[in-house]
Amino acid sequence: MISLKVNEKVYKLDVERDASLLWVLRDHLDLKGTKYGCGIGRCGTCTVHVNGKAVRSCALTVGDVQGMKITTIEGLSPNHPVKQAWIKEQVPQCGYCQPGVIMQVTALLSQNPRPSAEQVITKMDDVLCRCGTYPYIKKGIKTAIQIMEKEGKKS
Amino acid sequence: MKTTMTRRTFLRGSMAATGLTLALSVTPFGYRLLNASALSRGEVPGFSPNAWFTITPDNKITIFVGNAEMGQGVLTAHAMIIADELEADWKQVKVCQAPVADAYKSPILGVQITVGSASVRGFFEPLRKAGAAGRAMLIQAAAAQWKVPEEECRASLSQVKHEKSGRRLTYGKLCLEAAELKVPQNPPLKKESELRYIGKPMPRVDVPEKVSGKAVFGLDVNIKDLQYAVIARPPAYGAKLLSYDEAAANQVKGVEKIFPLPMGIAVCAKSIEAALKGRNALKIQWGKGTIPDMDNNFIEKSMLEDLDKPASPVLSQGDARKTIDEAPKKLAATYFVPFVAHATMEPMNCTALVTADRCEVWAPTQSQTVFQMVASKVSGLPKEKVKINTTFLGCGLGRRVRPDFLVEAVSISKAVGKPVKLMWTREEDIKYDAFRAAASHRIEAALDAQGRLTAWSHKVVCPSILKDLRPADIKNGVDFYCLWGLADAPNSPMWNNRIQYEIPNLNIELLISSLPIPVAPWRSVQNGPNAFAIESFMDELAKEAGKDPLEFRLESLKNNKRASRVLQVVAEKAGWGEAVPQGRGRGIAQHACMGSYVAQVAEISVDKKNGRIKVHRIVVAVDCGPVVNPGPAVEQLQGGIILALSTALKEEVRFANGGVKSANFDDYPIIKMSEVPEIEVHIVKSTEKIGGIAETGVPPVAPAVANAFFNATGVRIRRIPLSPTTVMEALKKA
Question: HEC string of B421-454?
Fold first, then answer.
């Protein structure tokens, strides 16, 4: 039995310790927002947060993350500024990589709310998009920062 | 889009709430509008939900889209066209993915398929008419009820109004009466000034669920008792199976069944991980491939040597040979474009359930008609018993037209008698891709004493693309898919996929390469590789003629207003003719395909120490006639340019020992954010016939970059990708 803490819920699962976090999330917990892209940690499509950091779920086993706080795209608030910005800027095309992209961006902005253009590119080079939404991802990040700053002032 | 509308839910839904339903019947001679309201009530035997839209008494308007959504925004674009002419209130519109049905066959392609940038250009007029017919019928129903002339009634935002008396009725209240009326075949369309949605930026209907993570792609399909399957495949083309250890694989926990198929050994299991572990345990021994020493050198050498062999004539006007032989100035060059992979982010996959009396498929497919036909053949069930559910596509690029993954899923489900999700790993997705066809080109041309282009002789070597799609369409050794951008079949639905220059003496020949490497359409098909050869050579000719590359092109486009215009616009916007910033080079290219005209200017710099090219800026001008949804149009152009830049700078499939060596994004790198330049899009206002957009960004990129490289360095590279290795070799040789 493995115990996993995902999106604020604790799950007891009958899987091996060496089972891939990605496939356990997708096929045991039915959290299918996290996607399979390469299986070797190169495309970023399977990005989730573990203890607030963006990681590649395909490169981790459930044993690696026991007791840690795991967040998937489904666990992000529906009104998260990045999600708002993604709709406003119409970022996704096919959309397959976008949950991973969004998880990468939200981790970046929670650690560094005002990243420079270079910092954005360095982080975002780790996630691939075949549709070529890169310019829209950049716009989305700028808009998300504005929304976060506005919301920050309100609270 | 929340759900795929199933035949059953459609029937149930429409029985509960009947209303006005309009359909389209596509014939070889055009299309007809049909009143399908009775059909949707289930009163007619042989019911099929062929409807484009249904209005129900609860005032809801459901629009069905038969094309696949892969990020191009077709769900929204088709809905906008219908809703506009129907004068529907967008807030009441729901968009659904349609099932497979004859009604969704493309009026220009003849099947239900999403290719050729044809979804909007092919359906623009019929969908406008379908919407307008609905509006006319609703007005007629209102006028009859009020006993007033129809001319005094006006439709506005899902209501019909009688101005004089101030009366109004909603579409919901009118739909049952309208459903009894005859459909006008030529209803009046709106004037441009009356358009409410067409041409205005509308948010895409598929975006919210793609942001929340709820969008269901093929790989996300979840049905009861699902088994997972993977296939062990040969490492080289034509390699035969020698032996495998079934017992060892069977011992892996979760593995359910192992059996051979024509394409390899299928492993079925309770989870994807168990299936993968089982596959590893098979320890298969394979024989050698049909060409055991085939690698990249072998391929390139073979395709270049083929240029010396006799080829099939494609097109001949004037006398190119004689003109070139006698010309005061002539030039010849050879170009090569390698195989590139589709590498869509969602790898190939398909879920199927085959029982004794039905076959149901859930697939990210671009080609519903063909998938239904093939699933029927493989399952042994009649077409009527085969249901295809189209999921969202994790990018398409033409790859998902090919039904290989469907054949596998249906075969496996048939063998195990359970629902099966077949998945290709990324490694399989790259290794067993049907690639964008490699091509070699030899072009010779003549210039007259004034440096004007007078003759062009062009030989192409390319593996056949139609061989796997429609072999009967290869006639006398000519496969037009290999030639798009250079030549096309008469009356082609691709509208103008041919060389645009006015050349009095033109000769084109094709030799189909016999290499055993599978190929398939890849965004813009061979327009991309062919434009690289044509537009690179135009630059070489301009230099030979001592002319500016823009002026030289315009000289041969005197009667081609659309091509000239996009060149002039892009030149002006990019500052063509102004000094290039220090250390940079600027290149231009134009192309026409799928009924649209496009020109680009690329600005680059080269690091001569390591051969790295930095693309700073790409400016694009396009004339695609009217634009339905400007946001996605711009995004499609940018996306196409970025994808093409990836192939211009980086992508080349590696082969070794008769098979594919490239396997994943570590050894088949694709473009990243840091490599993407500023892209400026200029869509020129145009009242010409509507053209395609999704593929048009691709073709001019590689030649514009190669021409910019020449402008920056004085060195011509006649092969993509312009990788650091290729660049360093070229700089050293110069």
Answer: EEECCHHHHHHCCCEECCEEEEEEEEECCCCCEE
Instruction: State whether residue A2 sits within 8 Å of chain B by CB.
Output: no
CB contact under 8 A, B345 and A27: no
CB B93 within 8 A of CB B83: yes
User: How confident is the model over B611-631, as a mean pLDDT?
Assistant: 98
A73 close to B (CB below 8 A): yes
The pLDDT-based confidence of A153 (bands split at 50, 70, 90) is confident
The pair of three-digit structure tokens given for residue B359, joined into one six-digit string: 């076959």
Structural domains of chain A, with CATH = 2-72 (3.10.20.30), 81-154 (1.10.150.120)
How far does B607 lie from chain A, in Å, by closest CA? 20
pLDDT(B10) > 90: no
State how far residue B537 is from chain A, nearest Cα, in angstroms.
28
Angle, helices A81-88 vs A98-111, to 10°: value is 130
Longest dimension (CA), chain A: 47
pTM for this model (two decimals):
0.96
Q: For the beta carbon of residue B150, count every other beta carbon within 10 angstroms.
A: 14
pLDDT reading at A130 higher than 80: yes
Kindly report the nearest CA distance between residue A6 and chain B, in angstroms.
15
CA distance B225 to B442: 56
- Asked if A117 reaches chain B (Cβ–Cβ under 8 Å), the answer is no
The answer to whether residue B619 neighbours chain A at the CB level (below 8 Å) is no
Tell me whether 0.95 is exceeded by the ipTM.
yes
Which segments of B424-557 does DSSP mark as H helices, in order? 426-431, 527-545, 549-555
Give the A:B interface size as CB pairs under 8 Å.
160
Residues of chain B numbered 649-708 and touching chain A (CB < 8 Å) = 664-666, 670-674, 676, 679
The model's pLDDT over B442-467, given as tens digits with 9 standing for 90+, comes to: 999 999 999 999 999 999 999 999 99
Question: pLDDT confidence of B588, banded at 50, 70, 90?
Answer: very high
Q: Which residues touch B658 (CB under 8 Å, ≥6 apart)?
A: B236, B237, B238, B239, B288, B289, B290, B291, B292, B293, B294
pLDDT at B47 over 70: no
Query: Closest Cα of chain B to A64: distance in Å?
Result: 17
**A83/B contact by beta carbon, under 8 A:** yes
CA nearest B277 in A: which residue?
Answer: A19
Query: How distant is the Cα of A68 from the closest Cα of chain B, in angstroms?
Result: 22
CB–CB contact A32 B394 (8 Å)? no
SS3 A21: helix
Chain A residues whose CB is inside 8 A of the B224 CB are none
Residue A104 touches chain B, beta carbons under 8 Å: no
Percent pLDDT > 70 in chain B is 95
Residue B18 — very low, low, confident or very high, per pLDDT cuts 50/70/90?
Answer: low
Amino acid letter at B448?
D
Domains belonging to chain B, first-starting first, are: 7-212 (3.30.365.10), 218-288+348-423 (3.30.365.10), 296-340+435-733 (3.30.365.10)
